[in-house]
Predict the 3D structure of the following.
Amino acid sequence: MKTLVLYAHPAQQHSRVNRTLAETAQQVAGVEVVDLYAEYPRFTIDIDREQQRLRDHDAIVFQFPLMWYSTPPILKEWQDLVLEHGFAYGHGGTALSGKLWLCALTAGAPLTAYGPEGRHRMPLRSLLAPLETTANLCRMPFLPPYVLYGALDATETRCMPHAEGYRHLLEALRDDRLDLAAARTLDHLTVETLPTVIKRG
């Protein structure tokens, strides 16, 4: 499965975790990584180029830090411009039908902060509802997000296993070894749950 990683971090020079994840993704053979902020520093997104990238791949991974319960600005701009009517949805808009949508994200707060009793009052998956609804509109199966909670305080002993899990996840996507049915039973994916959804090669 041809896999595209769209990486969006507006201050990656200050990000230990996301930078490590992006570097890990770049080392996975057969996976294309696009640094959106590096490619479009003025937000002048090349719509035709991005749409062709989507046509050329079977799985689309959006890698980003959760910012104010949403994506970084460039990823929203990318969605607004690239996912056009007649291309991604609407009459004749079937270009993305059947392609997988996966978010690989970092959340600054711990898992306990996301829920009715937590500081943020709702689970992370609920915060991602706009992305999941967009995926549904584009007829793209939306997979549970691969998440590192508590990323602001993540030490190397947590960061490196998470990055290695990311490598295994991307390789599983590439090699069609991700058990989609098993993955859909989970609210989110973590390095601990990956063995339950990745088939042995």
In short: The radius of gyration is 16 Å. The chain has a mean pLDDT of 94. The first strand starts at residue 3 and ends at 7.
